[in-house]
Amino acid sequence: MRCTPASVLSHSLYERANPHRSFEPGGVLETGTCEYEAVDDRTVRVSGGRFMQTPYTVRLEAAEFVGYRSIAIGGIRDPLVLGQLRGFIQGVEAVVREKVQQSLRLDPSRYSMRFVVYGENGSMGAMESEEAVSGHEVGVLIDVVAPTQELAHGIVFLAWHNALHYPIPEYSGLASHLAFPFSPPEVNVGPVYRFSLNHVMQIDDPVAAFPVKLERV
Amino acid sequence: MTELWELTTLIRCKNAAPFEMTVDVIAKDRASLQRILASESMRPSAVAELYGLPEREVHFVVLENVNAIKISMPRPTPSGDVLDTDVFAGQFHSPLVKLPV
Predict the structure, then answer these.
(1) How many Å lie between the alpha carbon of A213 and the closest alpha carbon of chain B?
(2) Residues of chain A neighbouring B57 (CB-CB closer than 8 A)
(3) Which of A147, A144, A142 has its CA nearest to residue A66?
(4) Which of residues 102-161 of A touch B (CB under 8 A)?
(5) A20-60 pLDDT, tens per residue?
(6) How many Å is the maximal CA-CA distance in chain A?
C-alpha cells in the first residue's frame, strides 16, 4: 500500500471515535482543518493541524479480577426446541440457578451465567435487531464466571446437564436436546479480568509519577 | 433497491477505546457518498433506532475527501467485560450492510 493523501487520511479513522481530535498528555491535536498534499507518489505533507495546549494529564487504566470462567458449547437442531428457544433457555436458567443454590450454596448474585445463542443474537446481544431464529440450527455457548474455578466448573456442569434433559411439553420421557462436539462438554477457561479504572489525572511533572530504576545485572 | 454495501468498498466496526465502538462506511466514490447521505435509512435518527440507542449517543462524522462516514456510539458493555459478546466490536456494523439506500 502506498502512502497517499487518501491513505493517510483513512488511517485517522481507524479505531477512533473522533477522527478530528487526538487527546495527548499536554493538549489536544486538532486535525479537522488539515491539508493533505502529495509530495510525490509515496510521500504526503500534512499541514494546518493545531495543537491546543491543556494542563498536563495522564490517563490511568486498570483491570480487576472478577472470577474464573468455565464454558460448554453445543448445538440445538430439534425444530420443536428451536420453536420455543427463548422460553426453553429461561426455563433452564431458572432450574440451574435453583440447583446451584441448593447443591453449591451459591446465591445468583455471586456468579454470572449466560447462554449465548449463535444463530439468534450471539454476536450483538440485546442490540440485535433481527427478532427470531431463522435458521435450522443454533450454536449455544454456556458461559459461567464464578468465584473459584471449581464453582464455575460445577455450575457449567449443572447448566449443560439440565439443558440437555430439560422437558418440553411435546415430549415425554428423558429427552436429549443438545449436540456436544466433544466430551466432557465443559472446559475450564481460567481467570477473568475486566476494565475497572478509566481516569484522567492532572500532574505537574510528567515523569515524577513514573519512577524508572535501572539495575545492572 | 440498492443495498448499502453495493455503494461501498468497506463497512467495518472496531472498538474506539474500551467504551465506544465506531463504524466506518467507505463509499466507492463521491456520488455514492452523496447517495448514502441522502437516504432515509442512513439518517442519524434511523441508525440510532436500528441500534436501539437514543439519537444523541450516535455521532456521525463525514470525511468527504475519503468518501467516508464514521458513526460512533457507546458499546453495550465495556470491551472484555463479563457479558461482552464481541471484544473487538468487529461485527456491530452488520445491521447496516443490507440497508436499502
Answers:
(1) 30
(2) none
(3) A147
(4) 112, 114, 116, 121-127, 129, 145
(5) 999 999 999 999 889 999 999 999 999 999 999 999 999 99
(6) 77
Tell me if A66 and B82 make a contact (CB, 8 A cut-off): yes
What's the pTM? 0.87
The C-alpha of A40 sits at a distance from chain B's nearest C-alpha, in angstroms, of 18
CA angle B20, B22, B23 (to 5 degrees): 155
Which amino acid, residue B101? V
Residues A137-148: tens digit of each pLDDT: 999 999 999 999
Taking 80 as the threshold, does the pLDDT of residue A136 lie above it? Answer: yes
For residue B38, give the C-alpha cell.
Answer: 441522502
Interchain CB contact of B66 with A (< 8 Å): yes
Q: Which of A192, A196, A166 is nearest to A178 (CA)?
A: A166
In chain A, residues with a C-beta closer than 8 Å to the C-beta of B51 are: 127, 129
Place of cell 474455578: A149
Which residues of chain A neighbour B17 with C-beta distances below 8 Å?
A: 17
Strands, sheet with A27-30, edge to edge from the N-terminal-most edge strand = A21-24, A27-30, A50-53
B86/A123 Cβ within 8 A: yes
Q: Strand pairing partners for A53?
A: A27
CA diameter of chain B: 43
Q: Report which of residues B40 and A18 the model is more confident about.
A: B40
Say what the ipTM of the complex is.
0.85
